[in-house]
Design goal:
The complex is a heterotrimer of chains A (319), B (220) and C (674). With 319 residues, chain A is mainly α. Chain A is built from 11 helices and 1 strand. Chain A has one domain. In chain A, helix 3 packs antiparallel against helix 4, helix 3 (66-85) runs parallel beside helix 9 and helix 9 (221-246) crosses helix 10 (258-284). With 220 residues, chain B is mainly alpha-helical. Chain B has one domain (3-202). Chain C is globular and about 85 Å long. The chains are: A mainly alpha (319), B mainly alpha (220), C mainly alpha (674). Chains in contact: A-B, A-C, B-C.
């Protein structure tokens, strides 16, 4: 019975993630436009864009290889696999035993490497500039991510996301300086990984200021649709990850009846909405930083995460 | 104190420390002043929280002084000085941002290692709070030695003093907290005004014709 | 039945040595073929034997052969630890020999050294006393030195080989000293040493000497400087064997001396040097892999990185064993072995592919290659598989290994005090940085050399290599995938070695489908992740089929509106692509200037000047700058002194000898009273 519920929850979760990801992007765009006193496109505009792009044949560069055509689907699949591991409204999904935080990080890295390779495939300068910068950001983001995982593993005794969320939802850990510092670090990470302002501008039209958009510059048609959907899904995965770890309240525990799922769903929507509003407000109030300030920014995230670990050593009385 | 009271007090202490890092990270004078104001604000909240949690009304007075003077009055005054004197907006730093931040983490680790053995008998969370406060003090000093402009040095000094207040309010039953904060306040006022007098003198000193020669690309 | 494994392995070693002699006297034309074919057969047998040995439980077995120094017969021992490394060595040997079959007359001169090289490594693994260990280690060093010199007409090759043999000599001296200190009453056999483990300053000295002696061969910082040039200079199949197997043999020596012979009674801090050197090496190697301009040097730098990661795992295992945390020790040691196994497979694969590429495209330089995905399609697929392992992406073996290592580091804080805990925290951050740097290096390597457009006519005319090489590549790729999908099974195979080194029971952390940090906890389920990925891929595929319009159009690259290239540049202007130096620029600026002393020099001609603009990048490995250069100067100064000694009068010469004698006697007297 539990297994059936777990599978049902997984299917519903994946459907929810896929449907909500473009809506989240649309909502953030709308809110940002309102904050700048513009009307902005409707919230479902990203869905319309995807539908439109899906009906267009892609135009490939003459020397594009099979890797270029396969990359968008592969990157989307890797992101989708990561999405299947991050719980939204209920714990104890079928994938719960496999939802290791390092694995989730690895799957997102897989998606990134695939797209970075595709950026190099046609051999244009913009693709290269995007790929190389993306990989540099990733190099600095990874240590911060691992240190955040380190913090959580010390608290929860393992790196399984489902177990961590299940533990933190009990509130036994209370408020912790370490968790606060880790939250700061992971927020910075989420900005970098999703190419948000101040790291990268997802809406820019100046190629030289772009990172992620420059990397996928050559894509069009259904390929572009997949890439945009993957980017939206990735943002939702990150926000869902932050919500599951740092605000796990409301989430339905493993084996709970589907009624609890409704509460979990409401809580999840609320949490994502809060994070989305915070992101929009932050993005409208800050300017993009120079590329070579980003390592410094991520360095701060690394240091914060390191402090989180050190404080945990102290307060858990290992010393 | 209950579990939650401790946790929240602890969290405020952590926030003050995090803002010390934010202070080190800033590159613009106005942002430094704002970050300092924010730190003072968090400190005021921390003091008020401790006043409530410990049932010590005099801590509310400390909180009010911190809020009124350090979070509002001094930052406003500094902003107006910066505007009126047309000071250079960039923070001149003797040490890069990242090295000073890394040094900051080292200082935190150091203060933990110093405080923990010394206070072995106290409650674990008190010890941690003391370690936080000592880190804030050390980071203030770091800011003073690693920044070149006088204003940032004063802010470093004041942030150091924030660390002292943090230490004073976090330990239960500490006497003379209010007196301490008032005394430090007077000292601060002197320091701030002293700096601005020096600053003005500096400006007159630097109104030397030799400096003007460089402007139009003359001989160096 | 089980008693037969050791004699059979010993017979294989002798067969390899005989093969070396036979190919030395064979006719010029079929010398290389004979050596490769023979090694292929022998290594194939070796794979079967060593796997069988591990599967039947890996019971230790000893053998004494009456050859060697007078009064000192050779002891051979086969136990779980040597069995595990034999599997690794023989697998790499099979692949390298198969690839060597695809020779082009270039390997003829040094062909006899190839079986000798494998024999030396196998003898090191089978050694049951200090003398046999050193004998095998030195045969391995000298044979590989000769193999590096295969292309000895190139000056870079000669200088790389000289640097290599220099470092190898220093390492050998240190190993001799370490084994001398280990010996008990003049007996070098491991069984005797094990019964009398060293203590105090002697143990510390042995540790330091082992770290230098074995670490220099493994490519552990700071003695890794020789490794990138030497591994790049050798022919492809030799580099594959050097990077894939020889570095692991050196790690085996390190494990044998520090885990086995020094006994479990050593202090906890013994793990710290390994962790520190490993973490630093991982970051430096990863960074250097992002800067180098030669595909094989890139791969060799990444070997330094992976060896560093393995060393971190060994350090944690050592410390955990001293603290009696057997489960943690087994986790860390298993992670190190698993990563060593995965690395041996994918790095051999990549080096073989690099050799094939060099032959097909006539160059190893990144900025002369490009567009090979269309010209060497089969090789490219293999390279992608290997590079995924190198970047530690799930679900590859590289990810499984690094996952276990990271779990070990995350669990390690409970071993020691605050200092050790902070070390673990920093080590975790550095390992993550190294892994991400490796991914960046892999993207750069493939993106520049295999994707894009060809940058030279030779690269445009490249083709896939011959069948033996393709078979070797495919075999290694298949094994890499298998290790990635079933890391638990591999850990199960390696259980005798893990049990031998850490005292843990078999299979504590590994099921067939899941590897876990603790037995009762969820962990990394590689097959499940692969299935999830596969299902997601299938879903995307069907969604595309169902909801999007089919087909695609070809047009000149958009490139933000830049014009299509003129007709006489069929591949466009290759120089407008992102090259190796340009891809490295962000990391070079962010980390390279401080850690690798990277300097850029841009030569921009004035308008009207027809000179091409150029960018020159110089790098300096910190260890080369701060360790090797000063020691070179020291050597020069010593040589000067020695020079002066030759001109001494007879009286002074006698005085020198007298003083030397006195020092010697004082040392003996001092040792007796200690």
């Amino acid at each position: 019975m539990n297994a059936a519920f777990g599978f049902l929850a997984l299917v519903l979760h994946l459907g929810l993630m896929l449907a909500a990801a473009p809506i989240l992007i649309g909502a953030i765009r709308k809110l940002k436009a309102r904050l700048l006193a513009r009307t902005g496109p409707p919230i479902i505009q990203p869905w319309r864009d995807l539908a439109k792009l899906a009906q267009k044949q892609p135009v490939l560069a003459e020397n594009a290889s099979w890797l270029f055509s396969a990359a968008p689907a592969a990157a989307f699949a890797a992101t989708l696999a990561a999405a299947a591991l991050v719980p939204s409204f209920a714990l104890g999904m079928t994938t719960a035993p496999a939802s290791d935080l390092l694995v989730i990080g690895g799957l997102l890295a897989l998606a990134r490497v695939i797209l970075a390779l595709a950026g190099m495939d046609v051999g244009t300068a913009f693709g290269g500039i995007g790929s190389s910068r993306e990989m540099m950001y990733a190099s600095f983001a990874e240590p911060a991510l691992v240190l955040v995982i380190f913090t959580l593993a010390l608290l929860a005794g393992g790196t399984n996301l489902d177990a961590i969320a299940g533990l933190l939802v009990g509130g036994s850990q209370g408020l912790r300086v370490s968790l606060a510092l880790a939250l700061l670090a992971i927020l910075a990470l989420a900005l970098v990984e999703n190419g948000r302002i101040p790291i990268d501008n997802p809406a820019t039209h100046l190629e030289l200021t772009m990172v992620h958009e420059a990397m996928v510059l050559e894509y069009s048609g259904r390929h572009l649709a997949l890439i945009e959907a993957a980017a939206a899904l990735k943002l939702l995965v990150w926000l869902g990850l932050i919500a599951a770890i740092f605000a796990p309240f409301g989430i339905a525990p493993a084996g709970a009846p589907p009624v609890a799922w409704l509460i979990g769903l409401g809580a999840w929507v609320g949490k994502i909405a809060v994070l989305g509003v915070a992101l929009s407000a932050f993005e409208t109030s800050i300017a993009k930083m120079r590329v070579f300030r980003v390592p410094e920014f991520l360095g701060i995230a690394i240091l914060f995460a390191m402090l989180a670990v050190v404080f945990l050593f102290v307060s858990q009385g290992f010393a | 104190m209950g579990h939650l009271a401790y946790d929240a007090a602890h969290l405020f202490g952590g926030a003050v420390l995090a803002l010390s890092f934010v202070l080190l990270y800033q590159r613009r004078l106005t942002a430094v002043i704002n970050a300092y104001a924010l730190q003072a604000l968090v400190l005021a909240i921390a003091a008020a929280w401790q006043g409530w949690a410990q049932g010590a009304p005099h801590l509310f007075l400390t909180a009010a002084i911190t809020l009124g003077v350090k979070a509002i009055a001094i930052p406003l005054g500094m902003h107006s000085f910066v505007r009126r004197l047309g000071m250079n907006r960039a923070v001149e730093s003797a040490l890069g941002v990242f090295p000073s931040m890394a040094l900051g983490v080292g200082l935190v680790a150091l203060s933990i290692m110093v405080v923990l053995p010394v206070t072995a008998q106290s409650h674990m969370l008190t010890r941690e709070d003391l370690a936080l406060a000592l880190s804030v003090v050390l980071m203030g000093m770091l800011m003073m030695i690693s920044r070149r402009t006088a204003l940032t040095q004063v802010i470093g000094f004041m942030s150091m003093e924030n660390g002292l207040i943090l230490a004073a309010v976090s330990v239960e039953g500490m006497p003379l907290v209010v007196e301490l904060s008032v005394a430090v306040l007077v000292l601060l006022a002197f320091a701030v005004f002293g700096v601005f007098f020096f600053r003005i003198r500096d400006q007159f000193d630097s109104l030397h014709l030799d400096h003007l020669d460089r402007v139009d690309g003359g001989p160096r | 039945m089980t008693a037969l494994f050791l004699p059979a392995m010993a017979a294989l070693v002798s067969a390899l040595l005989a093969l070396a002699v036979a190919s030395a006297v064979a006719a010029d034309a079929n010398r290389a073929h004979l050596a490769a074919m023979g090694s292929l057969g022998i290594c194939g047998l070796g794979v079967i034997l060593s796997t069988g040995f591990l599967l039947t439980g890996g019971q230790a077995d000893g053998l004494t052969i009456g050859v060697g120094l007078p009064g000192m017969p050779l002891h051979l021992v086969l136990d779980g630890l040597s069995g595990a490394f034999l599997v690794l060595l023989m697998l790499a040997g099979v692949a390298a020999s198969a690839a060597a079959l695809d020779d082009h007359g270039a390997y003829r001169a040094t062909a006899p050294f190839f079986p000798a090289f494998i024999a030396g490594m196998a003898l090191t693994l089978l050694a049951g006393d200090g003398f046999a260990l050193l004998l095998g280690f030195e045969v391995m060093s000298i044979a590989s030195f000769a193999l590096v010199l295969t292309d000895h007409r190139t000056p870079e090759v000669r200088s790389a080989a000289l640097l290599y043999i220099g470092v190898a000599t220093v390492g050998a001296v240190c190993l001799v000293a370490a084994l001398g200190l280990l010996s008990f009453g003049g007996d070098f056999s491991f069984a005797v040493i094990r019964a009398h483990p060293p203590e105090g300053w002697r143990a510390t000295a042995i540790m330091v000497l082992t770290l230098i002696g074995a670490g220099s061969k493994a490519g552990l910082v700071p003695l890794h400087v020789w490794l990138p040039p030497a591994h790049a200079a050798a022919p492809g199949h030799v580099s594959a064997l050097m990077s894939g197997a020889m570095t692991k043999i050196a790690l085996y020596v390190l494990i044998r001396l520090m885990f086995d012979l020094c006994g479990p009674g050593q202090p906890i801090w013994w793990g710290a040097p390994l962790v520190i050197l490993g973490a630093v090496g991982a970051v430096l190697g990863g960074l250097r892999a992002n800067m180098e301009a030669d595909i094989k040097t890139v791969l060799a730098s990444s070997t330094v990185e992976h060896i560093g990661l393995i060393a971190v795992g060994l350090g944690v295992a050592l410390a955990a064993r001293s603290a009696d945390l057997t489960g943690l020790a087994a986790l860390a040691f298993g992670g190190a072995l698993l990563h060593a196994m995965a690395h041996a497979l994918f790095k051999s694969l990549l080096f073989l592919a690099a050799g094939a590429t060099q032959h097909a495209a006539g160059t190893r330089r990144l900025d002369r290659l490009g567009g090979l995905i269309a010209r060497m399609p089969k090789t490219t697929v293999m390279v992608l598989i290997g590079a995924a392992g190198l970047s530690a992406l799930p679900p590859t073996g590289g990810f499984a290994g690094e996952w276990s290592l990271m779990q070990a580091v995350i669990a390690a804080p409970r071993i020691g005090g605050l200092g050790w805990q902070i070390l673990m925290c920093v080590a975790a951050a550095m390992m993550a940085l190294a892994a991400a740097l490796a991914a960046s290096a892999a993207v750069r390597l493939i993106g520049v050399a295999w994707l894009g457009r060809p940058r030279s006519p030779r690269a445009a005319g490249a083709t896939d290599p011959g069948r033996p090489m393709l078979a070797a590549l495919a075999g290694l790729a298949g094994l890499s995938i298998a290790v990635g999908l079933f890391p638990g099974a591999v850990l199960g195979l390696l259980a005798p070695a893990i049990g031998f080194a850490t005292g843990a029971g078999p299979g504590a952390h590994a099921g067939a489908f899941m590897i876990a940090a603790q037995t009762d906890q969820p962990g990394y389920a590689a097959p499940a992740i692969a299935v999830v990925l596969g299902l997601a891929g299938a879903a995307v595929f069907f969604a595309i089929r169902r909801w999007t319009v089919a087909g695609e159009r070809r047009a000149p690259a958009w490139d933000c509106g830049f014009g299509a290239p003129p007709a006489w540049l069929p591949f466009g202007d290759p120089a407008t692509q992102y090259g190796g130096a340009s891809f490295a620029q962000p990391l070079r600026r962010a980390l390279g200037t401080s850690l690798m002393a990277a300097r850029e020099k841009v030569d921009m001609p004035d308008p009207g000047d027809l000179r091409p603009a150029s960018l020159t990048v110089t790098l300096a490995d910190p260890s080369a700058a701060y360790l090797f250069a000063p020691s070179g100067r020291l050597r020069d100064r010593l040589a000067e002194y020695a020079d002066r000694m030759q001109l001494l009068t007879i009286r002074s010469t006698l005085a020198v000898m007298f003083i030397a004698l006195l020092v010697f006697l004082i040392a003996i007297a001092g040792l007796q009273h200690l």
